Amino acid sequence: MEHVYGGIVLDPAAPQLVVNARTLLFSWLPADPDAVAALVPAGLPVRPDHQVFLCQYVVDDETQTSGFGAYSLTYLGVSLDGAVSPDGETPAGWWTHYLASSPRVREYAAARGAPAAPGRTTVEIRREALVAETWADDVPVIRVRGRAGHTSHTSHSGHHRYLTHQDGQVVVADYPYVAEPVSPFEIESVEFLAPEHPVYPLRPANPLQVCWGFYSPRVSFAYPARPATPTEPPAVHHVPDRRARSGLPSGS
User: pTM score, two decimals?
Assistant: First the structure.
């Protein structure tokens, strides 16, 4: 089915490209591992540490996308055990929440199995102070504070693998990306501000234990054209690791 917004038709089977998104991506160990595991369907193995990931990004201008227009997005999920991206190392993830500011993006993502819902995200840096906030129904639900330095000549590229449910099947798709991470980079705090919101079970443990992550003012990525629909979790792909040149932690 095609979806029309503002005269633009988006076919959910077609690929889409986004360039130069301001992006924060990292993971942590949760306060309530059992609540995290309950968000993942039976049959998909959760990592023993129940690692949670969060991505908050902003696309400032419609010229940065092939059809989405300008928008902001926050997605969260749970890292899986025994299922990795094509680099052979980065854990695959189950999307639990997907809060997008654009109806066009929500319709497109929902047609691919993402748990899309309304929300908006801001990512701001003043000097080296990073603040990223996610809002749902005009209520702040997540606030991240950290430190972000400057980009260098270092780039990081690869694929992220995300799993969703669609028509009763598990859908797996690999999203290619290129990022220019900043250095130094540090997450100082992660606040889940609305205990009544469905994202609250994913809140981090206290003290905060960040596993990996990066901030980049320029991340480019693509939604693939035809995600596969396996009935079993994807197997490990033994592909030579490209991560060494980036200096970034595993999983970014």
Answer: 0.87
Q: How many CA atoms lie within 13 A of 219 on its CB side?
A: 27
- The one-letter amino acid at 112: R
Model pLDDT for residues 193-230, shown as the tens digit of each residue: 999 999 999 999 999 999 999 999 999 999 999 644 44
Phi, psi (degrees; rounded to nearest 5) at 245: -75, -15
- Over residues 60-82, mean pLDDT: 97
